[in-house]
Amino acid sequence: MTDPTTDPTTDPTTGPTTIDVWMQHPTPRFSQHEMFDSLRRWTHQPALTQELPLAATTGLLDEAGVALGLLSAWHGPREGALISNDEVAAWVEQAPDRYRGLAAVDLRRPTHAVRQLRHRVRDQGFVGLRVVPWLWDLPPTHALFYPLYAECVELGVPFCTQVGHTGPLRPSETGRPIPYIDQIALDFPDLRIVCGHIGYPWATEMIAVADKHPNVYIDTSAYAASRYPAELVQYLRGRGRTKVLFGTNYPMITPAHALEGVQGLGLDDDALALFLAGNARRVFSL
């Protein structure tokens, strides 16, 4: 367990102050999928064979001092709902003080996708949309995405996506910050875009796009703090202190692992507080 007197993710007067903006509570359908073979090889984690109680995930948040997790649904063109919006809504209902939901939609049904997003946000309190372009083998500038961007703007919620190479066994091209994220931000300047997984090996491109566009942000999911690229650490210390959000990509990385090395980043108190929670509260209107 963390010690609240020494752990930087914890305020001894108010409790944990870290928010994880990219995580999943895994289902066996999600965990067992063949596209995650490479991640299981890297992490040495076996696939789930039965449902995991939400308390198990919450316990890992507690251990690391994470106050709130944004649980994402997953929907793919061949896979269907690996983690359904209904499942996410049920988990949030079980622990509303610990979780918020991020919706997933079927891009092939654009009208239904917009209605689904609207329902999840307005009726169930979801705080954003996540679409992983490599899952669809479509760049995020494809026409099927654009009605969803407009709806995110209308609803006042962020669009969350993946940048950088693809860890699962799928092509990586759709994760390039330039031209894709750059073009979306030009077409939808009011859209808040949260780019997960740092952008490696195009991290410098990702920082340039975040610098260029006021509503483009980076999240650090899929990397332990000790493995952040040097250019991202420098960005966090200075002009990027309001542009970077903490994430884990749990269950691929546990919250405690993701926070390893955070004290060695050389962030001042203000930058650390913004990185761990302040930026997420602002961007997701938490």
From TrEMBL:
Pfam family, one: Amidohydro_2
Keyword line: Lyase
Molecular function as annotated in GO: carboxy-lyase activity; hydrolase activity
Name recorded for this polypeptide: Amidohydrolase
Organism, scientific name: Nocardioides acrostichi
Domain Amidohydrolase-related: 84-285
InterPro entries: ACMSD, Amidohydro-rel, Metal_Hydrolase
Taxonomy, superkingdom: Bacteria
